[in-house]
Amino acid sequence: MDLSLVKTILQVLLAVTGLLLVLLVLLHRGRGGGLSDMFGGGISAGAGSSGVAERNLNRLTVGVAIIWALCAIGLGIIARIIAVTG
């Protein structure tokens, strides 16, 4: 497989997982005292997601974050390989 193709795939995956990560973080229930209260998050604190849904959202967020980090590391390694080989 060509190195530029792998680089392009990783760049697309990095962008998609980055956007997904932002959306997943915004879906989390506010803990209070932060920006979530400023925008009305404190009002609906009792109507938030259940414990199981919150745990599943946490797991999904961590999984997407790990994929995002691996893509970033992979792009760094590819950039180093391209710089060395010219």
Automatic annotation (TrEMBL):
Q: Which GO terms describe its molecular function?
A: protein-transporting ATPase activity
Which cellular component appears as one GO term in the record?
A: plasma membrane
Instruction: Report TM segments.
Output: 6-27, 60-83
Listed Pfam families: SecG (PF03840)
Q: Write down the InterPro entries for this protein, in alphabetical order.
A: SecG (IPR004692)
Topology of the protein relative to the lipid bilayer? Multi-pass membrane protein
Keyword Membrane applies: yes
Record keywords, A-Z: Cell membrane, Membrane, Protein transport, Translocation, Transmembrane, Transmembrane helix, Transport
Organism's domain of life? Bacteria
Instruction: Kindly indicate whether the keyword Nucleotidyltransferase belongs to this entry.
Output: no
What does the record list as GO biological process?
protein secretion
The record's subcellular location field reads: Cell membrane; Membrane
Q: Its family?
A: Belongs to the SecG family.
The record describes the protein's role as: Involved in protein export. Participates in an early event of protein translocation.
Protein name as annotated: Protein-export membrane protein SecG
Source organism per entry reads: Brachybacterium nesterenkovii
